[in-house]
UniProtKB/TrEMBL annotation:
Classification lineage: Bacteria, Bacillati, Actinomycetota, Actinomycetes, Pseudonocardiales
Xref: PROSITE patterns: GHMP_KINASES_ATP
Enzyme Commission identifier(s): 2.7.1.6
Family: Belongs to the GHMP kinase family. GalK subfamily.
Keywords: ATP-binding, Carbohydrate metabolism, Galactose metabolism, Kinase, Nucleotide-binding, Transferase
Domain GHMP kinase N-terminal: 90-176
Highest taxon, organism lineage: Bacteria
Species, as recorded: Actinomycetospora chlora
The protein's name in its UniProt record: Galactokinase
Residue ranges of every copy of the Galactokinase N-terminal domain listed in the record: 8-55
Keyword Nucleotide-binding in annotation: yes
Domain GHMP kinase C-terminal: 275-351
InterPro entries in the record: Galactokinase (IPR000705), GalKase_N (IPR019539), GHMP_kinase_C_dom (IPR013750), GHMP_kinase_C_sf (IPR036554), GHMP_kinase_N_dom (IPR006204), GHMP_knse_ATP-bd_CS (IPR006203), Mevalonate/galactokinase (IPR006206), Ribosomal_Su5_D2-typ_SF (IPR020568)
Amino acid sequence: MSSDLVATFRAATGRDPEGVFSAPGRVNLIGEHTDHNEGHVLPFAIDRRCRVAAGRRGDDIVTVRSAQEPGAPVTTTLEALDRARGWSAYALGTLWALREADPAITGGWDLVVDGDVPLGSGLSSSAALECAVALAIAELGGSDLDRHALARAGRRAENDVVGAPVGIMDQAASLLCRDGAALLLDCRTLHGEDVALGLDEVGLVTLVVDTRVRHDLADGGYADRRAACVAAAEALGVPALRDATPDMLGRLDGDLLRRARHVVTEEARVHRVVALLRDGRPADVGPELTASHASLRDDFEVSVPALDAVVAAALDAGALGARLVGGGFGGSALVLAPDAAAAEIGTAVARRAAAGGHPEPVVRAVRPAAGARREDVGLPG
């Protein structure tokens, strides 16, 4: 794929790119909707990546081309980056945010992107694009911004240009994760710790089941949940819901109670899962995943029937645990299962989806992978 990207860049611009950079999608093992409440999350990067071939220009023009969006490139100027719309807003917004963070990043760019992170499936294709672009521009542009700063730039692009009020988890995972490990990330401080997953050693596999029910985090549902969390924290007199305790919840009612109860219980689940993994007990993580799904379904109310069907079918077919991942309202479910049961689980979720009139799901085994990097494609320098 990287060699094809170089050829595409060469054909479009008449020169070689200065470098090819890639960043992975991610799946969040546990800790859903705790990130925008300044809590803890436990994502791992997956072996699906977005790649960008990049080269500097001598003017103030920026062009972006995508293998997934054939046709003419999106072309704009440095002054108009924050007015980008559509898919290009993720890339152009990241450049805008980087220039805001580091005025030393100057001049125009040619960018060509491609990737195999499924779009709209809860695996954070948007953050993969943002982080690949951020790393390319920072390295080629001579910036001294560290990876935490690059993550913040990606998040700012999504918040302020795309209009999706996401937390920092996706970008941090894409930039900071290490091969074979999840990242215990404190979303308030951005302090991260590697947590070995140890799945291969005990014959476990993680499956991501894409329901093919698409979602858009820039729509109202996600923003409503986030606003409810802010309101609940204000009602409780805490800076964010990560600071709330179970005994405080009795002071809330209605939607605010349900939203806060999910965050408080999910934060506790993150720490229990970390303890299990550090104790070498990954199989015992399963019930925590299933409890997370119930909380996301009943208290946070971001599940949909297709996701509930996948979770139920997977558990009936031998999964150790399963839950929706990502923002919700569609997308994917994560299934933790014995490797020997993976095929039967795939058959079972397809059968259950058909019976419920849902789209045929796509089942993918994913492995923990390394974060963003420069690709070795044999370019000079």
